[in-house]
Amino acid sequence: MTTREAERACLGAFYEALFADPLLREFYSDSGYANFGYWRPETRSAAEAGDNLVDELVGRLSTPAGAILDVACGRGATTRRIGERLRDASLFGIGLSLEQLTAARRRAPTARFAQMDAARLAFDRNSFDAVFSIEAAFHFATRARFLEEALLVLKPGGSLLMSDLLMARGTLLTPPENHLVDARAYARLLTRVGFRDAQVTDVTDATWRAYRRHLSNFIARRYLRAPTGLRDLFAANVVFAWAVRQCVLVSAQKPSA
Q: What is the pTM of this model?
């Protein structure tokens, strides 16, 4: 096993453990989400925040989308929400975990799913009107390779729509080559790959910081009921608190010609 394969296996085990944690599943109302979400003042749950995050990206679509690719679809919550918002779209989700893909098929039964590496998309060129990726590209090997692949499979004029995390240098949560200093560096990367109209918006307050407040309050309320599960949730919270520097929403278009 190569170093990268070992890192991927450890990362996969980390997320599988989080998905299986009963307290975290309760926090997300067993919705299938595991991201920071997008918290508005009226948002009352992590499941609602997850829907909000997808809605924020759907609202950035520049043209109607008939064929949509959801990259790193997790357990299908994102795919399900995209389908609810874009009912005429044909949805295809990909991920690495077979267990998560099985859950995704149950959660979004009208979509198609396949096991696939985000940096090696096995689709024909010009296949999709939009490519979505929710809070995952910071893990990819590499983010730049994924963006190149996304550009190829998008139709001319198609949209790239992402939420992503800019992490501290040296964190094990992301490959070193994925390090980006800030949103401006991200926009330059998109332009260098070949996208146009790149917009990278800092939404850290509405995502990571709000998520931490709500998760901390949830843990405090549940402490007496289930103290044994707090250690892992607390450890994960500490790891991300050190690692996350910025949360961004990304939109860009493939040139029409």
A: 0.91
